[in-house]
Known about the structure:
- By secondary structure, the chain is an alpha+beta fold.
- It has nine helices and eight strands.
- Helix content is 50%, strand content 22%.
- Strand 4 and strand 5 form a beta hairpin.
- Helix 8 (167-174) crosses helix 9.
- Pfam families: cNMP_binding.
Amino acid sequence: METFKTHLDKFINISEEEYRSIVSFFEVIDVKKKQNLMLDGEVCRSMYFVLKGCLRKFFINVKGVEQTTEFAIENWWITDTFAYERQIKSEFTIQAVERSSVLVIDLQSQELLLKKHPVMERYFRMIYQKAYAASERRIRYLYEMTREELYIHFSTQYPWFIQRIPQYLIASFLGFTPEYLSEIRAKLRS
């Protein structure tokens, strides 16, 4: 849990007493590799903060293939923001890539948290701004870069993903087939 306190300290100043109160609004869960936290078609009731491990968000495309849209490793949040904010059915699945330990908060608890600790409004605003900026950059890269450039950029910017995450999931995230990713990697090695 100290992981979360260290993370919060990067954005806001809170006392130990405030931290204990803030954490009381969350539930800690341990999830197994490939365990689903939320399924496509379920109402998105929760946000997840990764204490340890890795989660991913994906959907099944029209060809019946899993398309990964997001990963979350330690100190990252993940949810279907659109469905969470509206408390509607999600079109995504959130699944553990590795055995993980996760903080979970639902919308009602989050609202109570924000009421009791207004400083958390600032925290969540800063988190959403960072996530939005990252999303904007990713969209630009998808339009501007070749597939090879996209892989090189991703592997340079996020080398820990290349080492931790199975190649077929990286391919899914980048919009490649696993075979095409293997071709790119072979070409870069030669």
